[in-house]
């Protein structure tokens, strides 16, 4: 086990459960129908409860599903990087409704959390400036380029590329920078990562096969490099990507056919279609007829840049393009009436790109004037798309936000829009089905609820609901609570006390192998006052290396968000970061850590956020962990599966087969097996975890271990005043009392509808 990293919370699934009045009780969502009346009844009761922080904190948690993962340290990076985490929350400091896109009354949607489908994205145009810069730095070091720094060539905030300046950006700059296998692979990877981080769950990336003679790269090599990246990304992430090959309008007929041949050859590796793109001012499209005919014959799907510029929107061109029988068309700007009618008749999929069209002045006017407004009424499925996010700087989430801002779509319409794209993906039926399961997220409005506290002492009261429907929900990652930090410190300390032990060893093993020396057992007494001691911090930082760069990046954003309680904690972490990174001696390091501890106190005093550890019952931790695994195994092996626990309780003799804790560590199960049966368990759990997408869809149980229940609740209470002010502001001064009534109506409408 990697020392110091323990996840105190688990992935769990919460329904619109909320406290039923009695402090600490929790109602989990009953999946499936038939419970409507009960739910309403419950809601009614809950709404009336002044203590229901489900209501106060979260607004109206209306959707049935949510998955909550709470993690510490490097977990943050890992999940973030893997894209499992679509959004960040922070129990302690962050008003959760900021991340509550789906709350019925919430005026705000978190578009990054919206599962999105991106169907029109050019690979080279999607590379972020930062990634280009990284490539450049590397090449400069190696003396391999004389190009300007991408951050100068494409300065931050510059998006006003028009069609005259846009195309040369590729031919004269980006292609010259990304001109070997390493840079191709690096930038492709970064593009995939960026889409995933933006909450894209299915991506059809497109690229023009490009030979790079200077690096001995053929078009075939180019494609292999890109497809390799995609395949490995697909294998390790929850986002699925397929590839479309682009024919450039500047190509001749033979080159176009060559692209189609490549697409045919690489279909098994994930090429799903062919595109026609490139400078609309150039070329006679009729020469591509044989290429598209061949593509269609071989079952490839077709998408075409359509009516992008006045020059490329002559009736002759447009009807020629329609004769290629495209499945989707992109941009679709300058379209005469008769062609519009034909598009409507065929119900062609439309890839519409707001920011690109506005920034490149491809439309007259601005966002509100975009033809999205017109097409949305036509019944043609629309896939909102980014085109070239690296150039135009607007992520898909942002495109959704723009749509809401300028076209006033309400939540249902936004969901509809997100869902629309499913039907027009070029991927397999399997892909569609996969997206279909996300449709349920959208349908269910993806309520993202934070873990209502589960009573620590009553894990068995949780209602376990086997899942026979696709998963709805998402991972949420909460920035580490200080109590987690403290726990991590303990663990680290314990390991430290058992120095010499392999880090893969578990605490429990350590503690039971050291003759039950209670002093050295990582478990601790609840009554003992807890402190984040210097030692603890040192060990924590030393072992975990947290906060890392990625974490720092995220935290910086949090600071920038200006949310005071949040920023309070964030600054603590920033201090930790400093402590960890730029000290040159142990003394200096220790000094910094002391400062951090003092800062921690100050923040606590100033913000009311308890940054020092909360009490935590280790015994409960075991109980919950054990319960978690039991539920997992029941899902896997059936309800009657009995885990051969040999003992109960913790520590001491006779604990040989005791489950001592289950932690995620970057998706690895951390668990100390003592016998064959337990290895089996480990394997099971591991298997479930590594097959996460399916596992989550098919088998995830509402395993929730909100072991910091009390802490959360207390934190919620402590922040109540701040929150209600903020909420009042956010909800236009609406009183929560009145909201209850509306919420009730809205619920009914939702269920009746
Ligand atoms: C205004 N929107 C657009 N219209 C037409 N073609 C576009 C485009 N955006 C990008 N491309 C095409 O995609 C290439 C870059 O990606 P790849 O090297 O293929 O990955 C550009 O050279 C251009 O031909």
Automatic annotation (TrEMBL):
Please name the GO terms that the record assigns under molecular function. adenosine deaminase activity; metal ion binding
List where Basic residues composition bias occurs: 498-508
UniProt xrefs under CDD domains: ADA_AMPD (cd00443)
InterPro entries, A to Z: A_deaminase_dom (IPR001365), Ado/ade_deaminase (IPR006330), Metal_Hydrolase (IPR032466)
* Cofactor dependence: Zn(2+)
Cross-referenced Pfam families: A_deaminase
The record places domain Adenosine deaminase at: 115-433
Positions with biased composition (Gly residues): 14-24
Q: What GO terms in the biological process aspect are recorded for it?
A: adenosine catabolic process; inosine biosynthetic process; nucleotide metabolic process
Q: Where is this region: Disordered?
A: 1-58, 496-522
Tell me what reaction this enzyme catalyses: N(6)-methyl-AMP + H2O + H(+) = IMP + methylamine
Keywords noted in UniProt: Hydrolase, Metal-binding, Nucleotide metabolism, Zinc
Subunit arrangement? Monomer.
> In which family does this protein belong, per the annotation?
Belongs to the metallo-dependent hydrolases superfamily. Adenosine and AMP deaminases family.
User: Which protein, by its recorded name, is this?
Assistant: Adenosine deaminase domain-containing protein
């Amino acid at each position: 086990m990697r020392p110091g990293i323990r996840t105190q919370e688990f992935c769990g699934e919460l329904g619109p459960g909320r406290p039923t009045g009695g402090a600490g009780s929790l109602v989990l969502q009953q999946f499936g129908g038939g419970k409507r009346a009960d739910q309403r009844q419950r809601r009614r009761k809950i709404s009336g409860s002044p203590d229901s922080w489900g209501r106060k904190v979260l607004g109206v948690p209306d959707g049935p599903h949510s998955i909550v993962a709470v993690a510490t340290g490097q977990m943050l990076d890992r999940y973030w990087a893997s894209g499992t985490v679509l959004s960040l929350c922070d129990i302690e400091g962050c008003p959760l409704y900021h991340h509550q896109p789906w709350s019925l009354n919430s005026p705000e949607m978190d578009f990054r959390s919206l599962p999105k489908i991106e169907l029109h994205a050019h690979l080279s145009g999607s590379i972020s400036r930062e990634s280009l810069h990284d490539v450049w730095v590397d090449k400069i070091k190696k003396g391999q380029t004389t190009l300007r720094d991408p951050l100068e060539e494409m300065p931050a905030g510059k998006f006003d590329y028009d069609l005259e300046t846009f195309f040369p950006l590729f031919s004269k700059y980006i292609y010259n920078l990304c001109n070997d296998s390493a840079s191709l692979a690096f930038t492709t990877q970064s593009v995939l990562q960026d889409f995933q981080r933006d909450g894209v769950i299915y991506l059809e990336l497109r690229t023009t096969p490009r030979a790079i003679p200077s690096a001995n790269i053929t078009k075939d090599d180019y494609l292999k490099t890109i497809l390799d990246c995609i395949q490995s990304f697909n294998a390790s992430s929850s986002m699925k990507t397929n590839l479309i090959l682009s024919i450039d309008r500047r190509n001749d007929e033979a080159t176009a056919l060559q692209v189609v041949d490549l697409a045919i050859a690489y279909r098994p590796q994930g090429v799903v279609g062919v595109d026609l793109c490139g400078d609309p001012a150039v070329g006679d499209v009729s020469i591509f007829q044989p290429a598209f005919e061949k593509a269609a014959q071989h079952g490839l799907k077709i998408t075409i840049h359509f009516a992008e510029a006045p020059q490329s929107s002559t009736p002759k061109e447009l009807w020629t393009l329609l004769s290629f029988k495209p499945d989707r068309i992109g941009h679709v700007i300058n379209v005469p009436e008769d062609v519009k009618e034909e598009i409507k008749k065929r119900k062609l999929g439309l890839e519409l790109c707001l920011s690109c069209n506005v920034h490149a002045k491809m439309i007259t006017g601005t966002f509100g004037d975009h033809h999205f407004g017109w097409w949305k009424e036509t019944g043609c499925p629309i896939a909102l798309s980014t085109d070239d996010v690296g150039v135009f700087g607007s992520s898909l989430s942002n495109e959704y936000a723009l749509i809401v801002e300028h076209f006033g779509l309400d939540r249902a319409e936004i969901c509809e829009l997100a869902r629309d794209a499913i039907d027009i993906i070029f991927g397999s039926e399997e892909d569609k089905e996969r997206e279909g399961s996300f449709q349920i997220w959208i349908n269910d409005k993806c309520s993202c609820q934070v873990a209502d506290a589960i009573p620590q002492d009553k894990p068995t009261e949780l209602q376990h609901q086997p899942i026979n429907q696709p998963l709805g929900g998402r991972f949420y990652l909460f920035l580490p609570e200080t109590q987690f930090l403290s726990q991590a410190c303990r663990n680290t300390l314990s390991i430290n006390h058992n120095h010499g032990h392999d880090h893969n060893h578990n605490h429990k093993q350590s503690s039971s192998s050291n003759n039950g020396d209670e002093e050295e057992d990582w478990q601790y007494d609840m009554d003992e006052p807890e402190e984040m001691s210097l030692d603890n911090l040192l060990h924590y930082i030393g072992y975990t290396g947290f906060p890392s760069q990625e974490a720092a990046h995220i935290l910086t954003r949090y600071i920038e968000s200006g949310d005071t309680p949040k920023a309070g904690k964030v600054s603590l972490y920033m201090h930790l970061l400093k402590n960890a990174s730029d000290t040159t001696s142990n003394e200096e390091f220790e000094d910094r850590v002391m400062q951090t501890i003092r800062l921690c106190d100050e923040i606590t005093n100033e913000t009311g956020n308890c940054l020092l550890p909360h009490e935590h019952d280790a015994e409960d931790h075991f109980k919950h962990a054990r319960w978690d695994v039991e539920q997992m195994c029941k899902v896997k092996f059936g309800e009657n599966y009995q885990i051969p626990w040999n003992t109960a309780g913790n520590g001491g003799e006779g604990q040989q087969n005791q489950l001592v804790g289950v932690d995620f560590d970057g998706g690895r199960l951390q668990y100390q097996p003592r016998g064959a049966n337990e290895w089996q368990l480990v394997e099971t759990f591991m298997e479930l975890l590594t097959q996460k997408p399916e596992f989550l869809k098919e088998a995830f149980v509402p395993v929730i271990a909100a072991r910091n229940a009390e802490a959360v609740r207390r934190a919620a209470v402590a922040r109540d005043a701040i929150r209600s002010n903020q909420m009042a502001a956010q909800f236009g001064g609406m009183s929560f009392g009145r909201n209850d009534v509306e919420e009730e109506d809205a619920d009914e409408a939702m269920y009746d509808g």
